[in-house]
Design goal:
The protein is of the alpha+beta class. The protein is 48% helix and 20% strand.
Length: 250
């Protein structure tokens, strides 16, 4: 809960109390905006395919329900994404394709797709450089400057490239633009990668293997067998959701 301060007077009462209550109300409502349609999604998305926690990847493939959650930092990231989309669309509409829906892969019941932040057009008629915005803290920017990025991000970028290739575009590079959440824009880092279809295909093959295994032994056993990351916030949310469901039946 946000702290409400009355300037020049520590005591809040009377008409000040009405104003303070209204301020508390609007601050509390910000958290309600954290829960979006995307946060309610249980099906695996492009950004989740390369997660270190394979247990959570299996849960996503199995469409296991988890309680929707949100927080301030992802909310900031979403707001920055929205502003960048509007700004680039208004000023340079002929140079960029923004928030295009991509279909990446179909396998049995899996339909993998999503929205790509940006594809920058090159001089070639069908040439594009694919970009994904990452709004991160200081450590994220520092790591990116050293070329240290999560394998999850690498796979995500290559999957976007694969999606654009399937739409008929010639993808030369994919990029991750790390924007500082707590610093000046001049300290941002863009990590460029040559497009490599094999990275995308390897990641998709791993999903197919899980799906095939689940047809034989069931999703519960597939999930149980997958390695869990050393610290996985998503695992904790799944486990809390499961505990809440059990409690509701007791």
């Amino acid at each position: 809960m946000a702290k409400i301060v009355l300037l020049d007077d520590p005591k809040i009462d009377g008409v000040d109390k009405v104003a303070a209550d209204k301020a508390s109300e609007w601050m509390a409502r910000i958290e309600e905006l954290f829960i979006t349609e995307r946060s309610k999604q249980i099906q695996i998305g492009i950004s989740e395919v390369g997660m270190d926690c394979r247990k959570c990847v299996a849960r996503k493939l199995a469409k296991v329900y988890r309680k929707p959650e949100g927080s301030w930092y992802p909310f900031i990231g979403t707001a920055v994404h929205d502003a960048l989309e509007r700004g680039f669309a208004e000023r340079w509409p002929e140079e960029y394709m923004l928030e295009n829906r991509l279909h990446v892969h179909t396998y049995k019941d899996l339909e993998l797709g999503g929205s790509c932040d940006m594809a920058a057009l090159t001089e070639s008629d069908t040439g594009v450089i694919v970009n994904d915005w990452k709004v991160v803290g200081k450590q994220g920017v520092t790591d990116a400057a050293k070329g240290k990025i999560k394998n999850q991000y690498r796979i995500q970028a290559q999957l976007y490239g694969y999606g654009w290739e399937q739409k008929g575009f010639n993808v030369s590079h994919v990029a991750l633009s790390f924007l500082p959440r707590e610093d000046k824009l001049e300290n941002a880092v863009v990590v460029l990668m040559r497009y490599d279809k094999s990275v995308a295909l390897t990641a998709l093959a791993q999903l197919e293997s899980m799906i095939d295994a689940a047809e034989i032994v069931g999703w519960e056993k597939v999930i149980e067998k997958q390695p869990q990351a050393s610290f996985c916030f998503s695992c904790r949310v799944y486990e809390q959701t499961q505990y809440m469901d059990i409690e509701s039946m007791v």
